[in-house]
């Protein structure tokens, strides 16, 4: 089995960085060239998704806190019942 040597333009990781940077630049130029309404730009969509994730995270934390509160109430009831005996 023959091994293929890899050819890099800049370096192993430099090519990746240049490729990603070029993609971001190209997309930003494309978005600037084509007028989009407010709320339809990439930044707006990313912000919307971020807000969704934050709300979901807050909901999960609230549900977990409710569970802990319920466990604490049950524990207090059991402790009071044990003291009463």
From TrEMBL:
<dbReference type="InterPro" id="IPR024242">
    <property type="entry name" value="NCE101"/>
</dbReference>
<keyword id="KW-0812">Transmembrane</keyword>
<dbReference type="Pfam" id="PF11654">
    <property type="entry name" value="NCE101"/>
</dbReference>
<protein>
    <submittedName>
        <fullName>SPOSA6832_01822-mRNA-1:cds</fullName>
    </submittedName>
</protein>
<feature type="transmembrane region" description="Helical">
    <location>
        <begin position="12"/>
        <end position="30"/>
    </location>
</feature>
<keyword id="KW-1133">Transmembrane helix</keyword>
<dbReference type="GO" id="GO:0009306">
    <property type="term" value="P:protein secretion"/>
</dbReference>
<keyword id="KW-0472">Membrane</keyword>
């Amino acid at each position: 089995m023959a091994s293929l040597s890899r050819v890099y333009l800049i370096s192993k990781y430099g090519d990746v960085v240049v490729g990603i940077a070029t993609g971001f630049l190209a997309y930003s130029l494309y978005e600037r060239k084509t007028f989009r309404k407010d709320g339809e730009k990439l930044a707006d969509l990313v912000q919307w998704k971020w807000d969704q994730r934050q709300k979901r995270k807050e909901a999960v934390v609230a549900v977990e806190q409710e569970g802990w509160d319920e466990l604490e109430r049950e524990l207090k009831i059991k402790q009071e019942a044990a003291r009463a005996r």
